[in-house]
Amino acid sequence: MPLNENLTEITPEEFNVELDLRYATANNFTGAAIYGRRACFLNLEAAENLRKAVELAADIGFRFKIFDAFRPTEAVQALWDHSPNPDFLSAPSNGSPHSRGAAIDLTLIDGTGQELEMGTGFDAMTPMSYHGARDIAAEAQRNRAILLGLMTAAGWDFYRNEWWHYQLFTPRRYPTLSDKAAGSRLMGETGQSGAE
Question: Which residues make up the binding site for Zn(2+) (predicted)?
Fold first, then answer.
């Protein structure tokens, strides 16, 4: 099935980003691969905002490492089934911005490819992950503020509980997509099945 016309693939070559797609590996909070293959997608508006953020980051010597972007509804369900925590995960019934191709999880890397210190790892389900957390080192607070500034200047909204999560301001303009409807083939044989 061809890729949905509203999605575009995010590749290192075209976007000058690094991909560390955690849900295609066991290196995530579930301890298991959710996706059956490593690929990254965003809807067209979000992809354009990412391009703007990449350019702004490059101006000050940084690049982005992407942990996740488009997340099929089956994956939203699998994550929720593992850890139904509304402070950090969108309930499948709400329709995640990720399943609309309208959200991205990422961090900053320096010129050597090293991640900047952010105080917690990606997907740490703790108040220390909140924007404005004051019980993290000053360096991590500074780095989070740089990430927040770059992303908001490029047209992204933030989620207050996750320093790594950014989304379009009105993601509900876009439909949620299953793996089949998206044509992303992310779920593969490894992924979970679920309702659209």
Answer: 98, 105, 165
